[in-house]
Amino acid sequence: MMRCRAFTIIELLVVIAIIAILAALLFPVFAAAKQKALITRVHSDLRQIGFALQMYYDDYEAFPMARTFCHGMSDKLEDFNELPPELHSSGYISIKKFADPFSPGHAYKYSAPGLGWSNGVKTYLGLWAPEDYPESTKEMQLFFDPLTSPVKWVAWSQGPGKQVDVFTADQWMLPMAKNHWYPYDPNGIIVRIHDGKSSP
Q1: pLDDT the model gives residue 140
Q2: How confident is the model at residue 97, as a pLDDT?
Q3: Considering only CA atoms, which of 198, 166, 196 is closest in space to residue 184?
Q4: Which residues neighbour 108 within 8 Å (Cβ) at sequence distance 6 or greater?
Q5: Do 116 and 123 touch, CB atoms closer than 8 A?
Q6: Are 112 and 152 in contact (CB under 8 A)?
Q7: pLDDT below 50 — which residues of the chain?
Q8: How many other C-beta atoms can be found within 10 angstroms of the C-beta atom of residue 23?
Q9: What pTM was computed for the model?
Q10: How far apart are CA 140 and CA 136, in angstroms?
């Protein structure tokens, strides 16, 4: 009669240690793959938002007005620049495409020069861009007129990094300042511009 041989405590500990080492090696790979998949999704969503904005323009001969709203003078970028609700309410895009996976509870962002809404008040909103865009060799300027601005609109995601303090001087120039784009800045934003240019 054959007797089953049980694991010794040493053998069991060795197996557990091997599993722990493999898990420690694989978890960062899985996390990086998940982040890359989210970045790919964001690029796809922003591309579809770009198509929706162009369809809106084709129908109304103007891009939707930008909106900016800060919750009690928040210094978090997530509280500024809402994506135009007209894109959803007019059926140009699904409301699901508004959700930014890198900023739970918030939508993608949008900015455009010209007449817009600031905290519910109609006013002129500016957009920072280099005067010689797309070459972008000149200093950033603030454009209020959509006819003279070299950039007609910008849509972006918070990106996988930390929150950005919009009251820092050069960060007021978001989203056109490339030094705050991901992956140039690991905490940067993921951008799409009206001419199809985007973050790498």
Answers
A1: 86
A2: 77
A3: 198
A4: 45, 46, 49, 83, 97, 98, 99, 100, 155, 156, 157
A5: yes
A6: yes
A7: none
A8: 10
A9: 0.80
A10: 8
Tokens of 58: 């084709």
* HSE toward the beta carbon, residue 9, CA cutoff 13 A: 0
Most distant CA atoms of the chain, gap in Å: 93
Distinct helix (H) and strand (E) counts, the chain? 2, 8
Strands 114-118 and 67-68: parallel
Q: Supply the DSSP symbol for 83.
A: P
Q: Is 144 helix (H, G, I), strand (E, B) or coil?
A: coil
Q: In whole angstroms, give the CA distance from residue 166 to residue 170.
A: 9
d(CA 28, CA 39): 16
> Which residues, in sequence order, are bridge partners of residue 173?
none
**Is the Cα torsion angle 31, 34, 40, 45 positive or negative in sign?**
negative
What amino acid occupies position 134?
Answer: P
How far apart are the C-alpha atoms of 30 and 5, rounded to whole Å?
Answer: 37
Task: Count how many residues are written for the chain.
Answer: 200
Please list, in sequence order, all residues whose beta carbon lies within 8 angstroms of the beta carbon of residue 57, skipping any fewer than 6 positions away: 63
